[in-house]
Specification:
By secondary structure, the chain is an alpha/beta fold. The protein has one domain (22-223). It is built from 6 helices and 12 strands. Helix 1 (24-34) crosses helix 2 (40-58). The longest helix has 19 residues, at 40-58. The termini are far apart. The structure holds uracil. Uracil binds at residues 148, 150, 210-211, 214, 217-219. The site of uracil has 8 residues, from helix 6. It holds the Pfam family UPRTase.
Length: 226
């Protein structure tokens, strides 16, 4: 099948890299996520608000076609409908946190896949452990759900695995809460046609490869496991 041409959601970093436009609601939600004193419950609630904005922006990459309908006043209205097949692939475990927002936001059916990639402690390289991809993924716009991009290693592996199954690079959109500047450049150099939508870009990675200022271990804070 021919690749669908995806339009940029807004001009922020570049056509392919979208940083959510600053707004007070987003900033205060991100401040709650970053604050180490935020309770588990408030962390999850703040995350849901960020996720709703992120996913709405990411779904702007889904092409639409004109649809004319009639309103209850009997008036014809020219609107649009999202037509492409869409799937979300959660990079486990943190990526699964974005599934609800994605399911709630899309005006059509969404299928979900899972991908487990872990860092090999001996080689420090990302190691593929498990995947379950939706059938028809190669004809879909694929949203890779990954809240944190620190070194870019795991996400590059994930993109590679999805492309090996026939998805064109230009049909892949990464949905990300926070990225290091380093990870963004790694991903952009390797996959220039890939789309990334993110809520925050931080400048530093510490010696343990955590993003700084960052928000700590996303999975532990979201799933309350630390
Ligand atoms: N994953 C996290 O959860 N936090 C980071 O800072 C980096 C990767």
């Amino acid at each position: 099948m021919t690749a669908v041409t995806l339009k940029p959601a807004c001009a922020a970093q570049s056509d392919n890299h979208v940083l959510l436009a600053p707004n007070n609601q987003l900033h205060s939600s991100m401040t709650l996520l970053r604050n180490k004193e935020t309770s588990h419950r408030d962390f999850v609630l703040a995350f849901q608000k960020v996720a709703a904005q992120l996913v709405a922006k990411a779904l702007d990459f889904v092409p639409v076609e004109v649809e004319t309908i009639v309103t209850p006043t009997g008036t014809s209205y020219t609107g649009c409908k999202q037509t492409a097949k869409v799937c979300g692939i959660s990079i486990l475990r943190a990526g699964a946190s974005l599934e609800d927002a994605f399911r709630n936001a899309y005006n059509g059916p969404v299928s979900f896949g899972k991908l487990l990639i872990q860092r090999d402690e001996e080689t420090a390289l990302p190691k593929y452990l498990y995947s379950k991809f939706p059938s028809g993924m190669s004809q879909s716009i694929v949203f890779l759900l990954e809240p944190m991009l620190a070194t870019g290693g795991s996400i590059c592996k994930a993109v590679e695995l999805v492309m090996e199954r026939g998805v064109p690079e230009s049909n892949i959109v990464i949905v990300n809460v926070m990225s290091s500047r380093f990870a963004l450049s790694v991903v952009a150099d390797r996959f220039p046609q890939l789309k990334i939508v993110t809520a925050a870009i931080d400048e530093t990675l510490n010696s343990q490869k955590f993003i700084e200022p960052g928000l700590g271990d996303f999975g532990d804070r979201f799933y309350c496991t630390d």
